[in-house]
Amino acid sequence: MRLALLADIHANREAFEAVLARLATQRIDRVVLLGDIVGYGPDPEFCTEKAAELVDKGALAVIGNHDAAIDGDSSDMNARARAAIDFTRNRLGAEHRTFLAGLDDTATEGEAFFVHASARAPRSWEYVTGRPQAERSIRACPTRLSIVGHVHSPHLWRLNTAGVATGHVPVAGMEIPLAKSQVWLAVMGAVGQPRDGNPAAAYGILDLARGTLLFERAPYDHFTTARKVREAGLPHELADRLGRGR
Ligand code: ZN
User: Fold this and answer.
1) CA of 181 to the centre of ligand 1 (A)
2) Secondary structure element (H or E) that encloses residue 120, with its range
3) How far apart are CA 130 and CA 84, in angstroms?
4) What's the CATH code of the domain at 185?
5) Torsion from C-alpha of 59, 63, 66, 67, nearest 10 degrees
6) Nearest-angstrom CA–CA distance, 161 and 63
């Protein structure tokens, strides 16, 4: 079973399409959408409809904080995120909103557990940005392999024999063997709004039979997306950061 891992698409049509075009050339059994299909970007309708189409064809999808905020509470978000949620609410119809609100908190496929932010209280949206957060998420995870998004910057954590999490930034394009005797937590980079200094869309391929994880990048036309962000009247910072990848 080979799974494509897509986190934080964030209504970025060009990035989403670039990743799907790559996947069409790779042998993939199932797509996993790790949340935040919308928010920040200019194409929430397209991305929601494409996500729903993938789910119809067997994709797994979990809810992100931006997806949940469309029909929920956005008061604890920063001003830029809130502005994007207001824009997104105005653009989406009832069907889009029902799809996003109905996404599950978590999903599993074999030994792999999927959640947007952290396995510890999925709806508290804790960022796995360091060792304590990684250890909390790993302890709450029912399997030995968990995959999250939310941080927008790839990282691979492993629990050592002393129960301490150690992590590193994985190199794109290198398949990493995930030893069966160990406990792993992979933070996937973002498809639609990378924050690790590389503007290319980030995604991953998890091969459950071989026990390997590949972090990948797909360059896309972020200039077009940035223009659409500005034309949509969204905060300009949301356009500028696409080119910086930060
Ligand atoms: Zn996000």
Assistant:
1) 31
2) none
3) 27
4) 3.60.21.10
5) 70
6) 32
Instruction: Give the tens place of pLDDT for each residue, 84-140.
Output: 999 999 999 999 999 999 999 999 999 999 999 999 999 999 999 999 999 999 999
Q: Domain tally for the chain?
A: 1
Residues 6+ apart with CB under 8 A from 220: 14, 15, 17, 18, 200, 201
Distance 39 CA to ligand 1 centre (A): 8
Quote the ligand 1 centre to 160 CA distance (angstroms): 28
Q: How far is the CA of 69 from the centre of ligand 1 (A)?
A: 12
Q: Which domain holds residue 156?
A: 2-244
Q: What is the dihedral of CA 201, 96, 104, 77, to 10 degrees?
A: 70
CA distance 238 to 195: 12
* C-alpha 162 to ligand 1 mean position (Å): 32
pTM: 0.96
